[in-house]
Design a protein that fits this description.
Blueprint: H1 2-39, H2 45-55, H3 60-71, H4 86-110, H5 114-122, H6 127-137, H7 139-154, H8 158-164, H9 174-183, H10 187-217
Helix pairs in contact: 1-4, 1-7, 2-4, 3-4, 3-8, 4-7, 4-8, 7-10, 9-10
Length: 218
């Protein structure tokens, strides 16, 4: 019983570490890229925006296949020895979440009143000040983008299984553990893990929603 509890705790912590890291990296990529797509006017913008929108609907198993081919020992990045490691799962989850964060950031900034941008520029705002003010005005949908990015990776299984291998004490996360227990017919454990995943997802999204709605009341 104690060993089972320790394993569940280890799997839970690893899930949060991997999905948390993937979400933060996706935010670091998606926020500036989405801002560039929303405010910029450059050659290739429409193509890049189309790629981002396509990426928002990428099947996780396709992402898993691509990352596995890149990281496989005979692949281009095989010398890095990243296949079947937590880092490989983070890479796959970033590819899944980054387009979501980027696309929603672009939409959030494009939905702002264009007169706000002209007003800020008229007041002499620098490029950095302009972007910060626009982020502040769009903070509520940007928080929604963060929640969507986290939701896309915490519940993901296909890519995690393909590039992580579901190795006990190394790459097993909550979603892959649920599949494993189900395949063994251990529905009690699988149900418990599923409930735990739902509770964790709810609590994190509740905290983010609280921040979002706190912004609304202001």
């Amino acid at each position: 019983m104690g060993s089972d509890l320790n394993e569940v705790l280890q799997v839970t912590i690893l899930s949060l570490q991997i999905s948390g890291a993937a979400t933060v990296i996706s935010l670091l990529i998606g926020l500036p890229l989405g801002t560039l797509l929303a405010l910029g006017n450059f050659v290739g913008r429409q193509l890049l925006l189309s790629l981002v929108n396509t990426g928002m609907g990428l099947p996780p198993v396709v992402v898993g296949l691509f990352v596995a081919m890149m990281l496989w020992r005979s692949g281009p990045l095989g010398d890095l020895n990243l296949i079947y490691t937590p880092t490989a799962i983070v890479i796959a989850q970033v590819i899944i979440a980054a387009p979501v964060v980027t696309g929603l950031t672009t939409a959030a900034l494009q939905a702002l009143d264009p007169r706000l941008r002209l007003q800020l520029l008229g007041l002499g705002a620098s490029r950095g000040q302009l972007v910060r003010e626009l982020w502040r005005e769009a903070r509520l949908p940007l928080l929604a983008a963060l929640m969507a990015g986290f939701g896309a990776v915490i519940s993901e299984i296909g890519a995690s299984m393909m590039v992580g291998g579901n190795i006990r004490y190394q790459t097993r996360v909550l979603t892959t553990a649920i599949v494993l227990e189900t395949s063994k017919g251990n529905f009690g454990m699988a149900s418990g893990l599923a409930i735990l995943l739902l509770v964790i997802t709810f609590l994190i999204n509740w905290a983010l929603t609280h921040l979002q709605q706190k912004g609304v009341r202001r």
